[in-house]
Design goal:
Blueprint: E1 2-4, H1 10-17, E2 23-27, H2 30-39, E3 46-50, H3 56-62, E4 68-74, H4 79-83, H5 109-115, H6 118-129, H7 134-147, H8 153-163, H9 176-187, H10 193-202, E5 204-214, H11 217-231, E6 249-253, H12 263-268, E7 276-285
Parallel strand pairs: 1-2, 1-4, 2-3, 4-5
Antiparallel strand pairs: 5-7, 6-7
Helix pairs in contact: 6-7, 6-9, 7-8, 10-11
Length: 286
Amino acid sequence: MVHFGGAGHSEEIVKRLSGKGLLIGIDRDEEALRAAKQKLEKYKNVKYVHGNHDEIRTILFDLGIEQVDGILLDLGVSSYQLDERSRGFSYMGNAKLDMRMDKNQELTAEKVVNEYSEEKLADIIYKYGEERFSKSIARNICERRKEKRIETTEELTEIIKNSIPKSKQNEGHPAKRTFQAIRIEVNNEIEPLYNTVLNSIMCLKEHGRLAIITFHSLEDRAVKEAYIEAQGKCTCPKDLPYCVCGYKSYGKIITKKPIIPTKEEQEENPRSKSAKLRIFERMDKK
């Protein structure tokens, strides 16, 4: 079993393995890996890998593993990262603009905010944050950084608030969409995702399952499209007695509609409100 993400679900997975299987916990955040090791220190059937889900085939090859029974991808920023204010993921409080999941990489939120062109900033804020005031926010960021470099989450939040009409600031925190967009850009969360899903399916044994938890529409769309591609579709005329188009299917989508958290779960964990779970089962069809 492979789990990409923080330690949140890992203990339950290890318990279900009942000592008979191996859990490979992979995360690009070394602090999250350390937290997982502490939480799971009594379990011996766990391997910890510092890496990215984009590299799944290489990671498994290096471990001498060809295929696995199941993969769980828990996408996006974790509660651990949000709560660790010094990481700069949250618009609550004040911290250096960082937002790196992997602290070894060079690109930070501060570099994005201070070095991207106004046009590029507006583009990513609109594309990854679906923020309709993206041009105004990008323009005001560029005006402010002429005076001094923007270095903290508090400074950025102030600029965003001043860029959105007060009458439109009743749809959640005004900085939420922009922070999401910058975080996605810093960590390259969307562009490789489609291929990551297809590669993950290739790493499954027959009847193995891939479960992916997404937290916003961009992630969910990429996962849904990759699942449809992997499932394949016969394009032969319906009156033909058998398939001649030679389409290839790698399995089937188990969840026609995504599984969403119950009302009780949302009340217990408000951050789960946007979560969607989609599942794919590997079944080779020649």
